[in-house]
Amino acid sequence: MRLIGLALALGATLLHTPLAQAACPDAATVDTFIADRAAARPAMPPIAAGSSLDDGLCAQAMVVERLSKDLGPVVGYKAGLTSPPAQQAFGVDEPVFGTLLRDMLLKPGASVRAADAVRSLFEADLIVEIGDAAVNDATTPADVLAAIRGVRPFLELPALVAPLDIQLDGPMITAINVGAWRGVMGELIAVPADETGVAMLADFTARLTDETTGETISAAPGKAVLGHPLNAVIWIAGVLKAQGKALKPGDLVSVGSIGPLNPMKPGQKIRLTYEGLPGTPGVSAAFE
Questions:
Q1: At what angle do helices 53-71 and 2-16 cross, to 10 degrees?
Q2: Whose C-alpha in 79, 161, 166, 269 is 20 to 30 A from the C-alpha of 89?
């Protein structure tokens, strides 16, 4: 399976070159990035184009440590660029790893100012809530489903923060924490822990709608994410294992783009609906 191969290859790379040996940016460079990000100024990534993945992960750890002072502790992780459209947009052929902090997560119906971040975006996503540490040994979506509490609607609101004339590569995207900024998260949805549930999560449709015009912005199936959204959890577990870490009960995993990224525009009211999941759940947000 290609996904497992990617996870193992990434793990082997990280174990061969520990993060302590990575070319980490200096503290002043990271501080400048954080200050520009907070002020909604174009923020230069703290590593240069062509840096290694280890460099990106080390920079991300430094960025997350500083962000956590204002945004609270780590509550989970995100797999970014998990759909073909997202990967094509950034010239990569595998996902990227990011970290979620508590105060990045907003309640349904939240109102968000697009101008509070540079290159603010929105996308259909899904959060998986971990229920059992056995998920770290999962190799199939069925294994993952048996070790989770359920899934949650998630309208992710990433921000690329970098200047428009910068071509971001995989390590640079990793360094800026995969653009993790904000996201609207809904209530827990229980999914049958059997083959019915596996099929349901592959086949549901994540539909983004402009509530003002009624227009469908995008509609994509769950399997747009790495062939099955729970494969993103397997990939995240592999990345963490390579760092000597593990998913634990209560952790949240954002599976990534279920369809394309969209620019956030003031005045929009967006609804994300999950057609095919129990109760047809969804969340909405307004952009100022």
A1: 90
A2: 269
Is 38 among the domain residues? yes
What are 200-232's pLDDT values in tens digits?
A: 999 999 999 999 999 999 999 999 999 999 999
Sequence-distant (6+) residues with CB within 8 A of 178 are 78, 80, 81, 96, 97, 98, 158
Whole-number Å distance between alpha carbons of 65 and 76: 14
pTM (predicted TM-score): 0.91
Query: What tokens does 53 get?
Result: 């993945």
Domain count for the chain: 1
Q: Which two tokens stand for residue 76?
A: 């989970």
Residue 105 to residue 152: CA distance in whole angstroms:
12
* Amino acid found at 100: L
Range of the domain at 26: 2-280
Tokens at 98, concatenated: 């990011």
